[in-house]
């Protein structure tokens, strides 16, 4: 029973990271119908950018800042201008395929220019345990959870409480009407791309100390985040958060109680059940089908 | 299409087929292996092209069906079955599984379907890896025999390549017939507008399932050839990446075009080999090439050709019209 608490805390910590990645994924889908199959690689890359800056002798915190800025520039602005904008008019599928190619490109570039080996990455949270209710819980899990929760609270406050957030939501829900009432839709779409880039950089910063920086680490993470987004509701930021936490916990519990071999299958089964019985997701709205 | 251009096309087809038969005679073992792989992947991509390009359903499970086919062939032939009966078995299995997998397609659309099939891909991979009693787990199955076809052994690379090429030829003919049959027309009606198709009396349910099942069977057939080609089967080649690669082949070649998968598979299988001179950079170049192509032409390579031909046809037509007009004016 006490073991269960540990598993849930660890699950919440990884789940919170999935949530960060999944939120960016739903934001892009909402504003520009982009399914980014390179989202996992987007999480992998910022860690390497930060490592590269650190190799120049820059102190850790500054390197993190530069890494986040570079990520916003490359994965936000660059991604939108160079790939999404020219492809958007072609529809969802060619764009999705192009992001698959992008994933291959990013993976290979990191492997080629940086290293094919896993590199250690400094943690923003000190190692060690603290005792909560008589149980030892790793500081790292708690730190990750805290940072991710802060980021999510910050984002939802931005979206729901500020005029900028309302404009963003309007642009996502009905671009035509939003344009009529004077929302700068283009700028709002660019903003969601930048937010996605910052979220993946943050996720990178949180997850890389746990799993090391490796060129191939994006695959599993990207897939988990997609599943989280689907389970929670493809068109809902709240849903992506709930989905991320749920997948994180289920994944950890499955590894402990079902079987380590079929651990990866449990979220998949959850996904299939969800799609069959509640395709709009846990918290999602049903999208109207157009003829 | 005029009689002239049809003749030209037939001549081109004969030249390409003759080239595919004659030129590889001088290839080394590795060259033949790559070319056989191209033929096998083309078959799998043709199956996906049917599901995606003709029936409009996005599937990320084609790689899993190649895996089912490969494991089916590997397990049965190492137990002494002839390859042809393994093929029959795999066709039945893939048809049934593809049919079942099509059911979610009836409930959900577009990207949701992609994720159901993605989940299936992952599950299939886990079964290949974990059910050691059947698949020998991560160690894989080795010493897969190559078959004898009408008494001819195909143990050497060249005869086996001809077996792959011949199978590709048969599948192509079957596909050619299928998309021109009422079935194919129903598939296309389904892609263009499912609701209108239904109102025309097409049983959308049955045809969606059918497109899925037939597409899956082609994946299985590719797998049955894959096992004796590599003579070794393990779970790694059949992970999600293969499904994504096959999807990329179909889109890059030109989805909905009969010969799109041929080109797509050529680019996915052969281009990285040709780019080997670039060493570590070759997959990067490949990725960049795919992105540039898709930005320029989302309907793939055949899309470019199609647009070029149709613009030439309009030009020719307007030239004819102008000529007729001036003749008419001169007569007046």
From TrEMBL, chain A:
Keywords assigned: Amino-acid transport, Cell membrane, Membrane, Transmembrane, Transmembrane helix, Transport
Its principal location? membrane
Question: Can you say where in the cell this protein is located?
Answer: Cell membrane
Query: Which cellular component appears as one GO term in the record?
Result: plasma membrane
Transmembrane ranges, per UniProt, are 7-29, 49-75, 87-106, 137-159, 189-212, 224-250, 262-281
Q: Does the keyword Transmembrane apply?
A: yes
- Which GO molecular-function terms appear in the entry? transmembrane transporter activity
Q: Which domain of life is it from?
A: Bacteria
**What's a BP term from Gene Ontology annotated to this protein?**
amino acid transport
CDD domains xref list: TM_PBP1_LivH_like
The reply on keyword Transport is yes
| Family listed | Belongs to the binding-protein-dependent transport system permease family. LivHM subfamily.
Q: What is this protein called in UniProt?
A: Putative branched-chain amino acid ABC transporter permease protein
Automatic annotation (TrEMBL), chain B:
Principal cellular location given in the protein's record: membrane
Q: Which GO terms describe its molecular function?
A: branched-chain amino acid transmembrane transporter activity
Q: Which InterPro entries match?
A: ABC_transp_permease, LivM-like
**Subcellular location(s) per record:** Cell membrane
Q: Which domain of life is it from?
A: Bacteria
Pfam families the UniProt entry points to: BPD_transp_2
Where do transmembrane segments lie in this chain? 7-27, 33-52, 59-77, 83-103, 110-128, 160-179, 207-226, 246-271, 283-305
Tell me how this protein sits in the membrane: Multi-pass membrane protein
Query: What are the UniProt keywords, alphabetically?
Result: Cell membrane, Membrane, Transmembrane, Transmembrane helix
Gene Ontology, cellular component aspect: plasma membrane
Instruction: List, alphabetically, the CDD domains matched.
Output: TM_PBP1_LivM_like
Q: What is this protein called?
A: Putative branched-chain amino acid ABC transporter permease protein
Q: Which organism is it from?
A: Bradyrhizobium oligotrophicum S58
Instruction: Tell me the lineage of the source organism.
Output: Bacteria, Pseudomonadati, Pseudomonadota, Alphaproteobacteria, Hyphomicrobiales
């Amino acid at each position: 029973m006490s073991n269960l608490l540990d598993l849930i805390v660890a699950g919440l910590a990884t789940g919170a990271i999935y949530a960060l990645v999944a939120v960016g994924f739903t934001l892009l889908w909402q504003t520009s119908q982009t399914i980014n199959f390179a989202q996992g690689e987007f999480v992998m890359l910022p860690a390497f950018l930060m490592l590269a800056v650190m190799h120049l002798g820059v102190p850790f915190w500054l390197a993190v800042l530069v890494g986040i800025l570079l990520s916003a520039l490359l994965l936000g602005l660059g991604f939108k201008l160079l790939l999404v904008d020219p492809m958007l008019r072609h529809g969802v599928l060619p764009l999705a395929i192009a992001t698959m190619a992008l994933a291959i490109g990013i993976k290979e570039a990191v492997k080629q220019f940086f290293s094919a080996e896993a590199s250690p990455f400094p943690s923003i949270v000190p190692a060690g345990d603290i005792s909560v209710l008589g149980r030892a819980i790793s500081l790292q899990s708690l730190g990750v959870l805290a940072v991710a929760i802060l980021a999510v609270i910050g984002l939802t406050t931005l979206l729901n409480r500020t005029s900028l957030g309302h404009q963003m939501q309007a642009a996502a829900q009905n671009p035509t009407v939003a344009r009529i009432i004077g929302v700068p839709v283009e700028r709002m779409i660019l903003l969601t791309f930048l937010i996605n880039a910052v979220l993946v950089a943050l996720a990178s910063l949180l997850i890389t100390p746990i799993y090391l920086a490796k060129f191939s680490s994006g695959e599993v993470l990207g897939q988990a985040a997609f599943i989280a987004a689907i389970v929670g509701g493809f068109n809902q930021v709240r849903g992506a958060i709930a989905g991320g936490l749920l997948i994180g916990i289920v994944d950890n519990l499955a590894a402990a109680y079902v079987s380590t071999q079929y651990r990866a299958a449990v979220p998949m089964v959850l996904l299939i059940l969800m799609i069959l019985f509640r395709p709009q997701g846990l918290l999602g709205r049903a999208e109207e089908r157009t003829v | 299409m005029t009689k002239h251009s049809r003749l030209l096309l037939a001549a081109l087809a004969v030249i390409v087929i003759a080239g595919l038969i004659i030129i590889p005679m001088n290839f080394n073992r590795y060259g033949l292996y790559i070319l056989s792989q191209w033929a096998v992947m083309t078959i799998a991509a043709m199956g996906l092209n049917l599901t995606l390009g003709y029936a409009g359903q996005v599937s990320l499970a084609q790689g899993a069906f190649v895996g089912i086919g490969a494991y089916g062939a590997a397990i049965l032939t190492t137990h002494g079955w002839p390859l042809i009966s393994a093929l029959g078995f795999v066709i039945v299995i893939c048809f049934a599984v593809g049919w079942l997998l099509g059911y979610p397609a009836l409930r959900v659309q577009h990207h949701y379907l992609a994720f159901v099939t993605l989940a299936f891909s992952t599950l299939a991979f886990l079964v290949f890896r974990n059910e050691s009693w059947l698949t020998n787990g991560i160690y894989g199955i080795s010493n897969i025999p190559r078959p004898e076809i009408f008494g001819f052994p195909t143990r050497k690379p060249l005869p086996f390549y001809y077996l792959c090429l011949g199978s590709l030829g048969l599948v192509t003919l079957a596909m050619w017939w299928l998309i021109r049959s009422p079935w194919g027309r129903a598939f296309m009606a389904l892609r263009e507008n499912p609701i209108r198709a239904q109102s025309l009396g097409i049983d959308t349910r049955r045809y969606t399932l059918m497109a899925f099942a037939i597409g899956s069977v082609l994946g299985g057939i590719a797998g049955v050839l894959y096992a004796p080609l590599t003579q070794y089967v393990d779970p790694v080649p059949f992970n999600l990446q293969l499904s994504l690669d096959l999807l990329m082949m179909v889109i890059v070649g030109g989805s909905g075009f009969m010969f799109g998968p041929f080109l797509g598979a050529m680019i996915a299988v052969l281009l990285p080999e040709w780019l080997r001179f670039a060493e570590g950079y070759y997959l990067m170049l490949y990725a960049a090439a795919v992105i540039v192509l898709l930005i320029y032409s989302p309907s793939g390579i055949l899309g470019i050709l199609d647009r070029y031909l149709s613009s030439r046809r309009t030009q020719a037509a307007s030239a004819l019209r102008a000529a007729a007009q001036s003749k008419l004016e001169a007569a007046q």
